[in-house]
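Hey, resending since the last one bounced:
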Amino acid sequence: MAPSSPSVEIEVDNRVVRVTNPDRVYFPKSGATKLDLVNYYLAVGPGILNALRERPCMLHRFPKGLAEKKVHQKRLPAGAPEWVETVQLYFPRWGRTADELCVTELGSVIWAVQMSTVEFHPWNSRRADTEKPDEWRIDLDPGEECTYDTVQRVAHGVHEVLDELGAVGFPKTSGGKGMHVYVRIHPEHGFKDVRRAALAFAREVERRDPGEVTTAWWRKDRDPEKLFVDYNQNARDHTIAAAYSVRGLPDAPVSTPITWDEVDDADPRDFTIFTVPERFARLGDLHEEIDEHVYDIRPLLEWAERDEAEGAEPPGAPPGEPDDG
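The structure tokens again:
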């Protein structure tokens, strides 16, 4: 009889999650283990729960740590406790359904980490109506030769346009080289309209800063020194790492909420699983109030109509992908 793997039991509210192989090294550069990852998510529990609550969630799993292949998991991994909740989604491209994780409590997050999840990538819609997004995502994606100070400058431009619209944006580092800004919106429009509104916003940012910003969809058409305002992150089934999600990179960086006042000074390399817990304990969840600031995207849809009347192309589905509805 083979010996059982080492394990620890983690109490999470009224749940107990058994974590196997707690000493397995996930991040070889630092030596951070699976248990370190569990403890990180426990430390930022209210923040990651706020970011994921009631959203379909794709998991980026590393069964053997970062040293081996990553698994992109839509369906809930087998063996889930009965209290781990899901939401069923339909994928027209394949004509299939999938039951994705739908986080309603912190125990579900810790169970997913037990199942080797490092990154959490939620939809921008919730279980009540998965076809109507309630989150508009502005992804500032720098080109290969674009510097981070460009990201910072463009972020200020984004903030300026949001202020003029009366929209409240909640910025965060991407955990990589870019920055994200989230805006809560009324869940009244489908993905196609939200993406169309996001493109209209991106074009306005580009008009104001054409030397540093691009909205060109195809990478081959972009200047590598420019920043792409990626409106496509609002398409159906396109996801990005949640606030407080760890990224599967050697330094164990975290996609971390920041204030607008921190944009110029915050270095994304400083936000890791080793530093963010103390920051969270000191500042709390900087996205905690996002649900209190809901924006109506109709002015952006009017911008889209104006742009299209002047000859701009609407955001059609990229070749090989279905229309996002």
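The chain has seven helices and 15 strands.

Sorry for the duplicate.
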